[in-house]
Write a structure and sequence with these properties.
The complex is a heterotrimer. Chain A is an alpha/beta fold. Chain A has helices at 7-17, 32-43, 58-70, 81-86, 88-96, 121-125, 139-156, 181-187, 214-243, 269-282, 300-307, 328-335, 357-368, 382-394, 401-416; strands spanning 2-6, 22-25, 51-54, 75-79, 102-107, 132-135, 160-165, 173-177, 203-205, 251-254, 261-265, 287-292, 294-296, 312-317, 342-347, 375-377. In chain A, the strands form three sheets. Chain A has a seven-stranded mixed beta sheet, with helices on both faces. A six-stranded mixed beta sheet of chain A has the order 10-12-11-14-15-16, with helices on both faces. A two-stranded antiparallel sheet of chain A has the order 1-8. Chain C is an alpha/beta fold. The chains are: A alpha/beta, B alpha/beta, C alpha/beta. Chains in contact: A-B, A-C, B-C. At the A-B interface, strand 9 and helix 9 of A face strand 1 of B.
């Protein structure tokens, strides 16, 4: 059924269709609308047999989820940014215990400086936490991925993080084809836990494991993610059979076949990139894009297969590993190891900065001519950065960087004005 | 359940980890000697029989008790209960009323008609017991249980010895004594009354006795030379008390002076009151706290109106019963010293209660015997220097109480039995005493001693009804349950409960507990928290 | 005390059991068929009060719930000594997640059970949940989750085994560590040796301030009281909290056999008031039976040895005595005293 609705609402409805049994809610922008929507649905009786718990922190949200999932309840929560960081200890624990929790991360920048707008820093900080991380390109996919996420999570007994860009998707009204309950029920069987806290068959979950077995446990976690590389496309195919559309999978190629230059990106920015590429193609430029849908597990083979013919790769990412550069790019380099390709890292859209087609055109054309530096910061205001660096060189204690920059921005504006 | 590797474990699997290997000390269950048992001259397993009484199993309690003492109804009245003096509970509130529970069991046995079990198979040995007092009856009972043929020769007209002829009825009703004597006779002990043994060797030879136990008692009153113009006014306590058993009560008059400070003096004074004396005065040369008589008996006598003249000696008995008394003082060593000050008392009669001597005539001609202070010497095995002749009770060196007599009888019986078999009886080594510091008294609730009912004072002064009443079933049970069970497990489950390692195995009712040394880490919490000190901590050997 | 009407003059209700008691009046721990929820082979130190307290509490809860019980365990000694791979000492469904989240995990368990019960057509879940942790996991790092669980009135019994420091990590100070106590982070050096005199953090009273259905303190030295409280708690619904005093021979520097004795002294001195409260009001206090001076308690522990060393700190001992006396007044711990003001409701009882 086609609907014009807010992304958060679409996700809330999709989660509701998955018949969750426990939902933990704690407010943090830009995820809040999702749990608000679910809360209303539970209270109104639209979601039956579900406990909706207003917890006191994200740490508690994930902890409650651990408890309910281990007791065999299909469990959902959502968070973003600082909230994800605050629950980190429990995030690792959930995957370590193999609990198939599904969590939405409405991607948002990390402080300080505090910033509520979108980038991928939060999810990327958790790339090694053991969860499966799926990125949605648009609201339709965000909704669809949640339904798939429960199936993947429960088959593997691993938690799944569905990442969608904060505000850009969560707060955007788009047309979404909402599945019916019958379809979802046909696709997603009831949750049969791999292990459960049940007095009829008691077990001790969460043992202390020493050097004698810890490595094996960690390897098994890796092996499970490797199994996910097969399962994720399979679930995507099953999804298509029932719902009739492509959604999910490991990677999403666009105009790749003959492309000399390939852009790699995750999330909603793929739309802008595709538009840009359409325009560049119209100009006769051999360029395509590969969307990464599953960041964890990282689809090394799929990416290598898709990009083996490319001459150069531009990894455009909304995240940044301070002190080295790209996060996604590093993984891509590993995937392409040994091939003679130039790989550029473009850090863009941090803290909600717009990624415009104009900027993309400029940067991609530079890349095409191999005029781009290896690590490029799109639309970086160099004059501000340089002024601050100068100041710091002169005065050791030059004050907080953010404040200084704001002061410069004010000067800049007044200069302009 | 398809459990994830390592993170999820099968329940209870830690049993594979035998933490007992950590131990440097190991707890062991012990049976320590309770102070009451230790103090009992009759060797009763007091704590042991109280254990059964606590559960209301009075017959088992009585059977356990009578292994050492066949006369609990008597002893529950006349024993001076050193057990209670030793009782650890006295350090908490009041000693357990062991004596009153014993009496309850004895009375219950008479009421229910419980009989002693049949003797062991006959040994074919004949043992002569001379004297049917506490020692003789006790020995006869024990020897009969062992399967020997026992004949008691008693010089008097009835069995009981001093229990009958020394202890007044108001302390020991005769039907109680008769019942307990009869129960011994019913075991097949032959009792020949008014049969005096004049020569022990002849008697043994004549009736082919294999051994003899002599317990003739001390029935000859000690006299002291008091100048008297009317010697008829001077009587002795033994005769007075003995004549109480006859048809004619002694003529003591309205004013009676009793000379002496022992229990017999008290008995005579109280008897005199009951016979109608307006005044009964005890004259004693030292002070109340130096009196050999038990304080509670002094107290009861005072309640009944008996008067006391401390620090006084009788110098002479003059005309018309004018008794000259000299005042004494105690020197630094506590000995009475004459002062030269005199006083006069009026008395219709003077009863001397100065102790008793033994009639040792039956031993004349027995070779090798030695005597000292008027009693015959025996070895640790109660045997005299003449093989096969044993002796006990008041005729051997010891305290002269009924309880000691009962103990002698038991003790001698064991040695006689061994001697008859050509072996020796080795007393088991004495166990460590369960002193108060071995207990954890926290666990005992506060429960004051139950006071036995006392006969009202008017009837005490005018009749020979029993002064002290007994406990009834409910308060006997209460009293039994005040027992701390010193040194012996009473199945309180504390060790089983307090072990942090579940290393105590509960074996079930009556079967107590054992340690599971596979898991016991030797922390000692069970030892510390055992209320009754029945667990010891021992170093682990390497 | 006084929770079980037993007229048994030998030991009253103080011992674990008694051969003469009718079976229905015996403690859970006296039962030959007790569950031993925490079984032998665990790696707790000799004389561990926490191991003992945990078995007492969980066995009682097992009896109260007909063995339909799940336990959630915070990180800490109890967790580490009971479940090192490949062996677990637990006999019940049990989960360990993190140090600071036991209350929240238990909320999740309770929520899942509630949903399952509803799906099965039951009004109330049959399977109940207990969360448990040490004082560090409860009064410090787990405090946020604990308060949240209380405030929502989730159907969880949280049990804190209070041994007054972070023992598992090597005896560091927690907010439950008493003043002047030596720990690895409050060494007995300088002018004011040992832990600072702070304001204290009385979590049972804070729990009461949430107005939850049931709050109680208990001690390994009074088994029947502890079992009574756990049973009572398991017969109620909503958020419940029991704070159990569990001496630690290792951390306190006490003899392993003195574990229960120390717990008893803590109560009998007044330093650890044993009481229960319902909906924010004190309803019952365990009276002191044989009042003891604080010194009797302090002297048995090496963590306080510096108070009795070459330069005895009688002033500090006196402050402890003041603390104890204040508790005695505040909770009415002696004789027929009633609780002082501050506990509305106690005057009715």
């Amino acid at each position: 059924m086609l609907k014009q609705c807010e992304g958060s609402h679409a996700v809330a409805e999709a989660v509701a269709l998955a018949r969750p049994e426990v939902i933990c809610a704690y407010p943090i922008s830009p995820q809040t609308h999702i749990v608000e929507g679910l809360g209303e649905m539970v209270k109104a009786g639209e979601i039956q047999d579900c406990e909706y718990i207003n917890v006191e922190s994200e740490f508690a949200a994930m902890s409650v989820a651990i408890g309910s999932s281990a007791t065999g309840a299909r469990t959902y929560t959502a968070t973003a940014s600082q909230g994800l960081l605050f629950m980190v200890e429990a995030v690792y624990n959930a995957s370590g215990l193999g609990l198939p929790i599904v969590m939405t991360v409405a991607n948002r920048a990390l402080g300080a400086p505090i910033n509520i707008w979108n980038d991928h820093s939060d999810s990327m900080s958790q790339r090694d936490c053991g969860w499966i991380q799926l990125f949605a390109e648009n609201n339709q996919e965000a909704a669809d991925l949640h339904i798939q996420a429960f199936k993947i999570a429960e088959e593997l007994s691993l938690p799944v993080m569905v990442c969608m860009d904060g505000f850009i998707l969560t707060h955007a009204y788009e047309r979404v084809d909402m599945p019916t309950q019958e379809q979802v029920d046909a696709f997603l069987p009831p949750y049969v836990p791999r292990q459960v806290l049940d007095p009829r068959d008691p077990v001790s979950i969460g043992a202390m494991v020493g050097p004698e077995a810890y490595t094996e446990v960690r390897y098994l976690a890796h092996a499970k993610q490797m199994q996910a590389l097969e399962l994720i496309p399979k679930v995507s195919r099953e999804f298509k059979e029932i719902f009739g559309r492509d959604s999910g999978g490991l990677v999403r190629p666009y105009l790749l076949e003959d492309a000399d230059t390939v852009v790699i990106a995750l999330g909603s920015v793929l739309g802008t990139i595709k538009d840009t590429i359409d325009e560049m193609r119209a100009d006769g430029i051999s360029i395509g894009v590969l969307g990464i849908n599953s960041f964890r597990p990282f689809p090394v083979s799929a990416i290598r297969r898709a990009l083996s013919h490319a001459k150069r790769i531009v990894v455009l990412e909304k995240s940044f590993a301070v002190g080295i550069g790209g996060i996604v790019a590093t993984d891509v380099r590993m995937a392409m190891d040994g091939l003679d390709q130039r790989i550029y890292t473009v850090v863009a859209g941090l803290g909600g900065r717009n990624i415009t087609r104009a900027s993309l055109h400029r940067v991609l054309r530079m890349a095409m001519h191999d005029q781009l530096e290896g690590l490029h910061f799109m639309d970086l205001e160099w004059n501000i950065v340089n002024r601050e660096l100068d100041r710091e060189r002169q005065t050791r204690r030059s004050g907080p960087i953010a404040e200084n920059i704001l002061r410069d921005l004010g000067q800049t504006k007044s200069n302009v004005g | 359940m398809n459990k994830p590797f390592a993170i999820t474990l099968q329940v209870g699997s830690s049993l594979a980890n035998k933490t007992g290997s950590w131990r440097t000390f190991r707890p062991v269950y012990v049976n320590r000697l309770p102070p009451c048992n230790n103090a009992c001259p009759a060797g009763e397993d007091t704590q042991g029989w109280l254990f059964h009484a606590e559960s209301g199993d009075y017959e088992t309690a009585w059977r356990h008790l009578t292994e050492a003492n066949p006369m609990p109804a008597v002893m529950g009245r006349v024993c001076y209960h050193p057990c209670e003096g030793a009782c650890n509970r006295g350090k908490l509130d009041d000693a357990v009323g062991i004596n009153s529970v014993e009496r309850f069991l004895g009375d219950e046995a008479i009421k229910q008609g419980w009989a002693f079990s049949k003797p062991a198979a006959s040994t074919g040995k004949r043992v002569l017991v001379v004297g049917a007092g506490p020692s003789g009856l006790s020995a006869a009972y024990q020897l009969r249980r062992m399967g020997h043929e026992v004949v008691i020769f008693e010089a008097g007209p009835a069995a009981g010895g001093m229990m009958r002829f020394g202890i007044p009825k108001y302390r020991l009703p005769r039907e109680v004594l008769d019942a307990e004597v009869q129960r011994i006779v019913d075991m097949g002990v032959e009792l020949r009354l008014e049969t005096k043994v004049d020569n022990i060797l002849e008697t043994m030879k004549a009736e082919k006795f294999d051994a003899a136990f002599l317990a003739v008692g001390a029935h000859i009153a000690k006299r002291t030379a008091i100048p008297a113009t009317e010697s008829s006014r001077i009587l002795d306590a033994v005769s007075v008390l003995r004549s109480m058993e006859g048809e004619e009560t002694p003529m003591l008059g309205r004013r009676v002076v009793v000379y002496g400070g022992g229990n017999t003096a008290i008995d005579v004074a109280r008897t005199a009151k009951r016979l109608g004396a307006e005044e009964a005065i005890i004259v004693y040369r030292r002070t109340r706290d130096k009196m050999p008589a038990h304080d509670f008996e002094v107290e009861e006598a005072l309640q009944e109106g008996v008067m006391m003249r401390w620090l006084s000696t009788i110098k002479q008995v003059g005309d018309g019963g004018a008794i000259q008394v000299e005042k004494m003082v105690l020197d630094e060593a506590g000995r009475p010293v004459p002062t030269g000050e005199f006083d006069t008392l009026e008395a219709d009669s003077v009863v001397l209660a100065l102790g008793q001597d033994v009639d040792l005539g039956l031993l004349d001609g027995v070779p090798g015997l030695s005597f000292e202070d008027g009693v015959v010497q025996v070895g640790d095995n109660m045997m005299t220097a003449y093989p096969g002749i044993f002796a006990g009770g008041d005729m051997v060196p010891s305290d002269r109480t009924v309880t000691v007599g009962i103990g002698h009888g038991k003790h001698a019986a064991r040695h006689i039995d061994a001697w008859l078999k050509g072996t020796t009886y080795d007393k088991p080594a004495k166990k460590e005493i369960a002193t108060f510091d071995k207990l954890n008294p926290w666990y005992y609730t506060d429960a004051d001693k139950t006071v036995r009912p006392m006969l009202d004072i008017i009837r005490r002064q005018s009749s020979f009804d029993e002064v002290q009443g007994g406990l009834d079933e409910s308060n006997a049970l209460f009293e039994a349950r005040r027992c701390l069970s010193c040194g012996n497990c009473f199945e309180c489950d504390n060790c089983y409960g307090v072990c942090p390692d579940n290393a105590v195995i509960k074996l079930g009712p009556g079967r107590k507990f054992e340690f599971n040394y596979d898991y016991c880490k030797g922390c000692g919490v069970c030892v510390e928290e055992c209320p009754c000190g029945a667990i010891a901590l021992e170093p682990e050997s390497a | 005390m006084g929770h079980q009407d037993i007229k048994f003059y030998q030991t009253g209700t103080f011992t674990v059991g008694n051969r003469l008691l009718p079976p229905e009046q015996r403690s859970v721990q006296a039962d030959m068929e007790r569950t031993n929820s925490l079984n032998s082979g665990h790696r707790a130190c000799q004389g561990c009060g926490e191991a003992l307290g945990a078995r007492y509490a969980i066995d009682a809860a097992m009896r109260a719930t007909g063995n339909r019980l799940v336990a959630v365990n915070a990180t800490g000694c109890l967790e580490v000594f009971s479940t090192p791979y490949p062996e677990t000492s637990w006999q019940i469904p049990w989960i360990h997640s993190l140090f600071g989240n036991a209350a929240a995990v238990a909320t999740g368990v309770a929520a899942a059970n509630k949903v399952k019960a509803r799906k099965a057509g039951l009004a109330l879940p049959e399977t109940r949940v207990i969360a448990q942790g040490g004082d560090g996991g409860t009064t410090d790092i787990g405090f946020g989750c604990l308060s949240g669980m209380f405030e929502r009135n989730d159907d969880v019994l949280y049990i804190c085994y209070d041994n007054q420091a972070y023992m598992n990590t090597g005896v560091q100070r927690s907010s439950a560590t008493p003043p002047a106590a030596r720990t690895a982070t409050t060494m007995p050096v300088g002018d004011e040796p040992g832990n600072e005199w702070g304001q204290g953090k009385n979590v049972p009273l804070i729990a009461m301030a949430h107005g939850i259905p049931y709050v109680a303190t208990a001690s390994v030295s009074d088994l029947r009281d502890l079992e009574y409280k756990v049973t009572k708690a398991m017969n109620m619904r909503g958020a419940r909290y029991i704070h159990i005093f569990v001496p630690c021979p290792l951390g306190w520097g006490s003899a392993s056999q003195d574990t229960i004795k120390l717990a008893r002294l803590a109560k009998e001195t007044g330093l650890f008031p044993v009481f229960e409260a319902e909906y924010g009001e004190v309803t019952n206090v365990s009276k002191i039976r044989q009042k003891q001076p604080v010194e009797a308690y302090l002297r048995l522990q090496r963590r306080f040895a510096h108070l009795f060393g070459k330069k005895p700190r009688l002033d500090v001992v006196a402050r402890f005595q003041e603390m104890a006396d204040q508790n005695i007044r505040k909770f009415g711990l002696l004789g027929s005293d009633r609780a002082a003001v501050g506990f509305p409701g106690s005057e009715h009882k």
